[in-house]
Amino acid sequence: MRIKEIIEKLNLTVYFSPEEDAEITGGYACDLLSDVMGHADAGSIWVTIQTHQNIVAVAVLANLPAIVLSRGVKPQDLTIDKCRDESVYLLGTEETTFEMTGRLYDLGIRGTKR
Amino acid sequence: MPTFKIDLHIHSVLSPCSDLMMSPSRILDRASEVGLDIIAISDHNMAENGKALAELKLRNFSAPECFFGMELQTEEEVHLLCLFEAIDTAMIMQEEIYPLLISQPNNPDLFGYQIVVDEFDEIIRHEEKLLISSVMLRINDVFKKVTDLEGIVIPSHIDRESFSIISQLGFIPADIPFPTVELSRNADINSFINDPSFSNLNLVTFSDSHRIEEIGTAWTEIELEDRSFACFKEAISMKSAKPFKIRRSVNGYTN
After folding, report:
1. Cβ(B127)–Cβ(B70) under 8 Å?
2. Residue of B140, B167, B170 lying closest to A58 (CB–CB)
3. What is the DSSP letter of B196?
4. What is the CATH number of the domain that holds B69?
5. DSSP string, B53-71
6. Which of A23, A30, A104, B65 could staple A109 via S-S, CB 3.0–4.6 A?
7. Which domain holds residue B239?
8. Please, what are the domains in chain A?
9. How confident is the model at residue B66 (pLDDT cuts 50, 70, 90)?
10. What ipTM was assigned to the predicted interfaces of this complex?
């Protein structure tokens, strides 16, 4: 599914959006960045409450096109700057991680299979 | 330059997980016995038992040098050793972060007692808030607050799978103010020494003692002009030309 479609359907806040659209092929939800690096499938949309700029580096490393900050947490300025440098979507929602992942699942997005 | 034995990660009775024998006076006595040169009591999110330590040090010139501070848990659940030269500065830090510690009342039956004591091991008060929780400050805010107060930050036990800067943030951010990180005493130190991604960092190991007999089981030896906070701060503020010497005793042998 195209990221623009997800943003629209779930009414996500856009903190940063690169010019190019991106294809989302899966999803991952976790706040331990070491875990995300090791286990998230490329192409996943990633739901987290971590806001440190390291989330952008992890997204780039694991080939995750988009990060969704849940529960209304706001990104740090440096994190938005990094997303601009690295062309990573930085999105937000007031909903909790549980609710957000449920809605993504409803759209047909599936998690990394273990 | 002389070499000093340093252990800046010791929990006192104010940490719920610590043994009730861990009063500042016993900690200082044991540290002297095992030949440490510089110590700090670094309880979870509180510096207050440093007051007794400071009193004890004032009366005993030959005791190990003492630094003051805490092991702070950030919003990201990263543990950072935040240390200062003087107890007064450490207490300013405590007062600033205490309202930001989001926590439940402690249940001593579940977690253990959190006790502030004086230099005679007398109980002054029990801390009500459970201290093993996060302070609602981001890691960068903590770096800033501590450096503004002229203190130092050393990320704790970065090899651990929980509460470490690597477990929570994936890797060590390039912009940390001091290029020095702590490995836990059980870490496979050589794997870090040989890892090129750690080549710009100084590695230290402290005991993370929760019981008296753990004091002296791990320390780091650093060459310094003297035992002052200023000299230590200078040493950990840049990548050292030669690695600091990490010493651990396992089953009675020191390596």
Report:
1. no
2. B170
3. G
4. 3.20.20.140
5. HHHHHHH-TTSPEEEEEEE
6. A104
7. 3-254
8. 3-106 (3.40.1390.20)
9. very high
10. 0.72
